[in-house]
Amino acid sequence: MTRTKTMAWVGGALYLLAVGLLVGGAPRASGTVHGVGALLAASLLVGVVRRAPLLALAMALFGATAVVVGPTGSARASLSASYQGEFLSYLAVDLVVGLIVATCARRASIVAVAGSLIVQLLVISGFSHGDNLTVNVVIALLATAAACMGGLLSRERREHAVALRSQEVAEAVIAERLRIARELHDMVAHSIGIIAIQAGAASQVIRTRPTEAGEALRAIEVTSRETLSGLRRTLVALRQAEPGEAASGNGTALAPSPGLADIDRLVAATADAGVRVDVHRSGEEQALPADVDLSAFRIVQEALTNVVRHAGTGRCRVLIDYGDEELSVEVVDDGRGATGNGADHGLGLGLGLGLGLGLVGMRERVALLYGDFSAGPRPEGGFRVTARLPLPEPVGVPVEAR
Predict the structure, then answer these.
(1) Residue 42 in 3-state DSSP?
(2) Does domain 174-237+254-390 bear CATH number 3.40.50.300?
C-alpha cells in the first residue's frame, strides 16, 4: 500500500517536471507539439487520479494552462489556425473530469466541472481572437460535455450493477430461508406425527399390554433419534465455514441426506403408526441427482404424514416410476380425502398449526426442479399426490477409436 502511494506521488512529480520541460525546454516548438506532449504526460497522473481526483484535476489544469500560456515564438504564429494545437492539453483535463463525475460525490463533480470549464474558457478567451475564439470555445464545451456524459453513463452502469448484485444476494437469502423452512417442516412434521400416534397408543395399552406399549416406546425412541440427527445435520450445514465440511464440532460424521433409498425405513415407521404402505417401483432404477432424490423422498414423506394424520385409513400406495426423462412419484390412499373446513388432507398440517405448509412446500420443491405437481381428492374417494421431476440428460463419454 505504501509503495503504491509513493509511486502515485512520484508520477505526479514527474508530470510537473515533464510540463516544465515542455514549456521551458522547447519554446520554439509548435503549439501542437506542446499540446500532444502535455496530453501524453498526463498519463503520469493515473496514480494521483485514483487517490486524490480533485488534486489530479488541479495538477492537470495547471499543466495544460502552463502549456498554453508559456510557449512563445512559433506557438504565437499558429493563431491563424482554426484551432490552436496547445489546447489539446485540455483533453487530459476533460478525461479527469469524466472520471470524477463517474466516481465522486455529486458536489465534488459539480465543483470539478465548473472549475475546469471556467479555467478553460478564460484561457481560450485570452489566447484566441476573432473566429478562432468561437471555434475553440465550442470545442471546449463539447469536449467537457462529452466527458460529463461518459462519466454519468459509467456511474449509472456501476450503480445498476451494484443494485443487481444486492437483489441477487437478497433473493439467494430468501431462497435459502425457504429451503430450510421446507426441510424442517417436512422432517419435523412427519416425526412429530409418528411420535404423537405412538405415544397415544402406548398410553392406552401400557397397563393391559405392556409388550405393545414397549414397542411403541421403542418406535418413539428411534423416530426421535432420526429427527435429532436430521436437525443436527441441518444446523451444522448452516454453521459450516466452508462448503464441503462434513463433520460437526465434536468430529463425528454426519449422516447423508435421505433419498429414495430410505423409502423402506420410512415405510416401516409409517407402518408402526398404523398405516400400511405398499411400494411399487417401475422402470430401471438409476442414480439420481441429489436434489431430485431428496425432493422425491420429502414429497413421499409429507404425503405419508398426511395419510397418517388426516386420511383415516389403514393403507396407501406409493408408486415410483424411473423414466428416461423424468422421475414420477405418486402417493394414493382411499381415505376421507378433503374435509369441508378447508383443512384438507393434502394441506400437510403435520404440526397442527393450520398453516397449510405441507402442500406449499411440496409445490415449491417441484417448481424449483421445473417439474409438475398435483394434489387433490380422487373421484372414487381418497386422495392423490403426484409429482413429476425432470431428470438431466446423461452425459455421453466418447470412445476413442483404436
Answers:
(1) helix
(2) no
The mean pLDDT value for 165-182 works out to: 78
pLDDT per residue over 112-129, tens digit each? 889 888 888 888 888 776
The residues pairing with 375 across neighbouring beta strands, listed in sequence order, are 385
Q: What angle do CA 251, 255, 258 make, to 5 degrees?
A: 160
One DSSP character per residue, 183-226 reads HHHHHHHHHHHHHHHHHHHHHHHTTT-HHHHHHHHHHHHHHHHH
Residue 197: name the closest of 218, 216, 222 by CA. 216
Q: Nearest 5 degrees, angle CA 185-CA 191-CA 194?
A: 135
Q: Which residues, listed in sequence order, are joined to residue 283 by a DSSP beta bridge?
A: 322
Reading the block at residue 193, the C-alpha cell is 406425527
Q: How far is CA 57 from CA 64, 99, 230, 251, in A?
A: 10, 10, 62, 59
Which uninterrupted H or E stretch holds 53?
A: helix 53-69
Q: Which of 3-17, 111-125, 274-288, 356-370 has the lowest mean pLDDT?
A: 3-17
Alpha helices in 70-105 (DSSP H): 74-77, 90-103
Rounded to whole angstroms, how far apart are CA atoms 354 and 309?
13
In whole angstroms, give the CA distance from residue 199 to residue 206. Answer: 10
Residue type, 166: S
Pairwise CA distance, residues 34 & 23, whole Å: 8
Mark 119-137 as b/e (b = at least 16 C-beta within 10 Å). Answer: bbeebbeebbeeebeebbe
Grid coordinates representing 294 are: 431428496
The C-alpha cell of 332 is what?
Answer: 394414493
* Residue ranges covered by each domain of the chain: 2-129, 174-237+254-390
Residue 253 DSSP label:
B
Name the burial class of residue 116, with classes exposed (0-12), middle (13-18) and buried (19+) by CB atoms within 10 angstroms of its CB.
buried
